[in-house]
Automatic annotation (TrEMBL), chain A:
Keywords: Cell membrane, Membrane, Transmembrane, Transmembrane helix. The chain crosses the membrane at residues 5-21, 27-44. It comes from Billgrantia campisalis. The keyword Cell membrane applies. This is Na+/H+ antiporter subunit E. The keyword DNA damage does not apply. It is a multi-pass membrane protein.
UniProtKB/TrEMBL annotation, chain B:
The keyword Transmembrane helix applies. PANTHER family: ANTIPORTER SUBUNIT MNHG2-RELATED. The keyword Cell wall biogenesis/degradation does not apply. This is Monovalent cation/H(+) antiporter subunit G. Pfam families: PhaG_MnhG_YufB (PF03334). It comes from Billgrantia campisalis. NCBIfam families: CPA3_mnhG_phaG. It comes from the Bacteria. Keywords: Membrane, Transmembrane, Transmembrane helix. InterPro entries: PhaG_MnhG_YufB (IPR005133). The chain crosses the membrane at residues 6-28, 40-58, 64-86.
Amino acid sequence: MLKYAVSLTVILAVIWLLFSGNWTHPILVPLGAVSVALTVYLAYRMRVLDREGHPVHLLVPVIKYLPWLFKEVVKANLVVASHIIRGRKSLSPRLCRLDATQKTDLGRVFLANSITLTPGTVTVYVREQEVWFYALTEELEQGVLSGEMDRRVTRLEGES
Amino acid sequence: MSLLLNLLSGLMLVSGAILVVISGVGLLRFPDFYSRIQAAGMTDTLCMILILGGLMLRTDSLEVGAKLLFTLVFLFFTAPAASHALTKAARQCKLSPWRSDKEDESSQP
């Protein structure tokens, strides 16, 4: 609990300093410190200062995961752009199901968010062990069904 | 060095703008609600990254760059939530996806 409180305080303080741009103002900086302390206290009262509410342990795995996701996003964007140019005849929309191997809710949220972030596929339902998603074409569907994204998210979850 | 940065950021801004136009065309051209969400999803991802990244290369102060970076991060987490909510709501209302073989019946709104 203390670990999460300290990390939340540090993150909020950095964000406050970057957003306000006041590093030495005699009134505003103490007021910022008070607002950070109030926010951390409220998060403590709301009982969201835990592993799920403040997943700071995922920071390094997520940074390792992002370049791959970015590459997929760029590829899918170009595919969708080419379908826009070729028109509706090139589409074959479908709803499909993927077995999710993540153990925690947070891992499934990561998987669903990654599927939605790549254009051409949108998550429709997230259940215990499966994710239903809508795909624009068979190519985009196979990109998700090949399971590479699922594997990488599971690994990200396991590294924490 | 600054010329190179300017060129790079200009290139990113122009390609982002072109992608926004393509995705706007897709919003009008795609046949049904689900596929239009995909076209709109392009603006949420690559266009947004290119335009905000291009602007970030042009800033001269840390604060403006940090604000742009935070905009990017927040959009990266909230945009999929919005698309997912729209798709799920449409699915709950039993809207079935468009199929190319049944164009005559289902393409009319």
